Amino acid sequence: MAALRLFMLLCVVFVLIVSSVSGESDASSTVDHVVGSDGSDDVKIQVEQLKAKIHSLESHVDLKTQEAKSKDDKILEKEKIIKEKADTIASLHSEIASVQKKGNSVVEEQLAKAHARAAELEKQVENLKKETELRAREKGALESRVSEAENKVREISSKLKSLKKSIDENKVKIKKTERALQVAEEELMKTKFEANAKIKELTEVHSAWLPHWLAAHVSSCQSYVETQWNMHGKPAAQLVIEKAKVKKEQVEKWAEPHVEIVKTKWIPSVKDQWFVIKSKAEPHVQSFTTKFIEVYETSKTAVSPHAIKAQEVVNSYYQEAKKFSKPHIDQVASAAKPHVDKVHGALEPYLKEVLHAYGKFVEYATAYHHEASALLALPVIILFKICSTMFSKKQQKPNRTGNTNHSRRKAKRGHAEK
Q: What are the structural domain ranges in the chain?
């Protein structure tokens, strides 16, 4: 049917094309003949209208041909779709036939599987029943535990309430103690202020013993010395101490090899020479000591009567000065005794703090003094170490062979004692 339709359309299109071409040729010949013969304007207008109609017909024919082509394409596509659907229908019929053949066996297999599944489900139901029973038992046990836990929570809440009450009471006590401490601190500050005021009064009284101009001069000198010490003396002393420590380390490092050389080489030779000098100079020293003792005894016997006379003269003047100054001293002591007792009574509660501060100051001063004295005594210590190593009695190996010298020295001592 589709092929016949296509053939009829093609025939119609061919006939239209042939007729349009022949009509154009006839019209053009007639138009030329008429133009040639008549040459009027009406004929020209008609000719142009005919040409316009011809062009419109040609365009209409072209549109029809295009529509016919598009319809042919659609027809071809639909025929392809029809063929595909026909093929699918044939395959479905074949599958249906095969399924109908295999349907009985599949149904039997599905029934067997359904029976097995039903048995498994029954077993699962039994297991679920057992699990539900166990869960019910566990639920009862949990409920009992929950009740016990609630009881414990109630007990703990009561304990917490009691603890909160005790904590609140302790907080109140702490606040009271803090207030008491604040009051005590205020009293201590007042007492310290009073003590400072009394100390100032005492210092003023003590400075009143001196003349006013001298006390002012002494206080100004003390303040000037303190400021100069804090500004210049203290940092300079610290720098000197640090430099002295560095120099000490450098001297120790520099002196170590020299000290070892002195110990190994010079000390034994010096010991030998010293032993020789000592053995030679000992009789002269003994004779010098005997002569010095004789001169001392003679001078003592000569000077002792003159010293006794001078002591007697001075003692007489001392007794007269003592008699003259004793009443004045007693008056001053009797006048100052009540003031001293008042000062002692006022300062007695603060003596401990003063003594503690004085002890710390003494410790700091002694430590600083020890450091300074150690730095100053460093060269003396080094010389003392060298001398001690030179004249120590431990290393006397080269003198052990000199038995004759020892015996000679003992003989000389024995002779001197005789």
A: 2-96, 245-417
